[in-house]
Amino acid sequence: MLGLFLITLVGASWFILMTILYMPVICLLGEEKGGLLARKKLGGFSRSLLRAVFARVEVIYEDEEAIKNLDRNSGIVVVANHQSNLDPPLINGYFPMDLGFVAKHEMEKWPFYGIWMKKSHCVFLNRSNPREGIKSIKKAVGIIKSGYPTAIFPEGARSLTEEMGDFKKGSFRLATDTNGIIVPETVKGTYDIQRRGSVLVKMGRRVKLIIDKPINVKEFTMEERKVLDIKVKKIIEENYRRY
User: Domain with 93 in it: what CATH number?
Assistant: First the structure.
């Protein structure tokens, strides 16, 4: 249980301290500058969580130059598989650009974290209510068009095993409605730290984040866009097996 204790201690301490020190500043800076500062601080928080459990993180690029030269105003959508509660910190902490998330709506009510996510231009998605879900996706599209890169887990929930679930087509509206850029990311190893249904957090595990080449949705025909979910899932699965 040491891992759970450490990650809880680091998380709670960070949120209390950073909320006292930075939340007033973030509010004063306004929506744009405040949002960017909140995202930057959440990136640091994310890395601290993985360090708390001595995770050995390796970031692998298929085309590092292409990723680091992306224009944030081009509509960037990060798409990744979902294994563990540690996936958002991994992606947020080690992607070379600030990120927000499309997250489950329950997280909006989480103490401290919900406030920071709101300030970071994250979107809360209620998958059990289709009407509200559509509103959330439209809101996320607007945020992405405004120059805030956003990540989504198209499986909709953490996988019960290391096998990936189906990618929901609706998740890809973030990219098709913005004519933006999809960055496929493969998460590997977080399942070994903490898996769904368990409070056990293991320490010293090796974790990989494989960042594939950007996919420009503008280059796809309408028919090709209909199978984006299949194409992106195939890329993520192939990288999972390869690395």
Answer: 3.40.1130.10
Is the pTM above the cut of 0.85? yes
Structure tokens at 85: 């509660």
Q: Provide the domain count of the chain.
A: 1
- What angle (nearest 5°) sits at the alpha carbon of residue 59, between those of residues 55 and 65? 160
- pLDDT tens per residue across span 153-191: 999 888 878 889 999 998 999 999 999 999 999 999 999
**How far does the chain reach from its first CA to its final CA, in angstroms?**
29
CB 174 within 8 A of CB 240: no
Q: Which two tokens stand for residue 54?
A: 């001595």
Query: What type of residue is 188?
Result: K
List the domain range (segments joined by +) for residue 100: 2-242
Q: How much is the CA Rg of the chain, to the nearest whole Å?
A: 17
Distance between CA atoms of 42 and 47, rounded to whole angstroms? 9
How would you classify residue 188: left for phi > 0, otherwise alpha for psi between -120 and 50, otherwise beta? beta
Amino acid found at 132: E
The per-residue DSSP string of 40-96 comes to: HHHHHHHHHHHHHTT-EEEEEESSHHHHHT--GGGTEEEEE---STTHHHHHHHHSS
Beta bridge partners of 77: 150, 182
